[in-house]
Amino acid sequence: MSRPPRGTLTRVPPSNPGNQPPKTPLDADHAWRATAGRAADTVLFFDFDGTLAPVDDDPTAVRPAPNVLAAIEALAPLVRRIAIVSARPVEFLREHFGGLDGVDLYGLYGLEHSHSGGETVTEPAALPWVPTMRELADLAHAELPDGALVEYKRLAVALHWRTAPRLGPEVQEWGRRQADRLGLRVQAGRMVLELKPPVDRDKGMVIGEVVRDAGGAWYFGDDVSDIKAFSALRARAAADPAFLGVCVAVANPETGHEVAEAADLTIDSPAALGDFLTAAVPRLR
């Protein structure tokens, strides 16, 4: 099967939780046309890693794809809000997006947030877990084999094996054992296992809260954790036929198929997404 041209979107069957009829137009052109009429009441949501930025062997070296920052800056005054919803801490996201007006940052799956450059607010129920996470990160450094990368995020610990794929089973088994021992929750991702506090916050909850009174929303994501965000948009559309929800998957060789099956539209890379958002700016003006 031939691939679509770089930077284009294609329609794929949505997972459609609850057997609700799809509300999304059949292609990106119609989706943007429908959005233009309600842009001031539309929220654009973006995952970071693998969506706005290509995945890198070193998580600290990840940077947004070309055109992304300029496109988001141009789109922000044209829509109701732009929100970055990520597994990264807010402070990491602030390095890239903190200077942009009209951009909200949700870190650690919603355990932290900062609105339009404001202070970082942490979910109170998660704060008692900070010492546990520090101890877990230290233990991971001591017990996991060379080649496994331990990323400490204050309220989460991510265990990566991208540079040593053979370690995947061992790292996952160790992480799940520690999660059971400490009463933590586990979030699987692209060659990473994340351990986080047992606090009820995830991307779907963040999106569901933000779009309660919005007229429309797009969500762009690449990983299995983004499927909850897709489901939140579908639930909102099921409750209000006037709401326009568009779920976009950014393709990748690891989780791309699963995410694409749950999305309305797919795009082939973070670089293509940067080009796509740049082209969308004049359409929403």
UniProtKB/TrEMBL annotation:
Its EC number is 3.1.3.12. Pathway: Glycan biosynthesis; trehalose biosynthesis. Gene3D superfamilies: HAD superfamily/HAD-like (3.40.50.1000), Trehalose-6-phosphate phosphatase related protein, domain 2 (3.30.70.1020). Its cofactor is Mg(2+). It holds the Pfam family Trehalose_PPase. It catalyses: alpha,alpha-trehalose 6-phosphate + H2O = alpha,alpha-trehalose + phosphate. Keywords: Hydrolase, Magnesium, Metal-binding. The keyword Hydrolase applies. GO terms for molecular function: metal ion binding; trehalose-phosphatase activity. Residues 1-28 are annotated as: Disordered. Residues 14-24 have a biased composition (Pro residues). One of its GO terms (biological process) is trehalose biosynthetic process. SUPFAM superfamilies: HAD-like. InterPro entries: HAD-like_sf, HAD_sf, OTSB-like, Trehalose_PPase. Transmembrane segments: none annotated. Belongs to the trehalose phosphatase family. Removes the phosphate from trehalose 6-phosphate to produce free trehalose. PANTHER family: TREHALOSE 6-PHOSPHATE PHOSPHATASE. NCBIfam families: T6PP (TIGR00685). This is Trehalose 6-phosphate phosphatase. It comes from Micromonospora olivasterospora.
